[in-house]
Amino acid sequence: MAQTLLMPKATAVWLVDNTALSFDQIAQFCKLHPLEVKAIADGEAAQGIKGLDPIATGQLSRDEIARAEKDVNYKLKISEPKVRVPDSKRRGPRYTPVSKRQDRPNAILWLVRNHPELKDAQISRLVGTTKSTIEQIRDRTHWNSANLTPMDPVTLGLCSQIDLDLEVEKASKGRPLPTAAELGATLQSASDTENLGFGYDREEEKEIDANAVFAKLQSLKSDRPTDDEDDQY
């Protein structure tokens, strides 16, 4: 793609004041009429316009100007930029393939339920739908509401995870922080739980009576049959 000269008229003012180029050469390079360049040189046009140095902007080299000054028929060529900036594409409505258009209501329902902070315009950008369709799904007045199932638009291939995250981040800016009631129950702090009773108090533990334990063992032995008693059977 051909490079476009920055501020052609200001560049022409600088070339007229600082070079020996002909009017035709300046007009050809700046895409102006030769008479307009002559009017700039005579002070009849471009009054108040400050000249723009094309060498400083990297759109012309000193060697290129010197070559053109030596040859009246030489046409100036704009220098190739060191860094190419991609052309910004105007973003229109997102195109959705025909095979996936039937999944858009399911994706809208998923976004409405899982990301209520998203605005209708954001949902429209993500899945390529209309505001009226989003309102119908929100109000459950869509003609197919009974059969809709929430489905992730990323899984359906209607948008990318990056686009979804960006829209959610934009929608979340400026929102108040959630209250404790919205967050639900939370864990108690350690200071609150360390003194809780568990039905076991070491201070109330009963002391073990050794004599009672041995007496119990003696009674168990006396109840056990002896060897002579076993021989009778």
Tell me what you see in this structure:
This protein is 46% helix and 0% strand. With 233 residues, the protein is mainly alpha-helical. Among the domains are: 6-68, no CATH class; 96-172, no CATH class. Helix 1 packs antiparallel against helix 2. The longest helix has 14 residues, at 210-223. It is elongated and about 135 Å long. The N and C termini lie far apart (116 Å). The model has no long low-confidence stretch (mean pLDDT 78).
Topology:
Blueprint: H1 8-18, H2 23-30, H3 34-41, H4 62-70, H5 104-114, H6 120-127, H7 131-138, H8 153-156, H9 161-172, H10 180-183, H11 190-193, H12 210-223, H13 227-232
Protein name: DUF1013 domain-containing protein
InterPro entries: TrcR (IPR010421)
Pfam families: TrcR
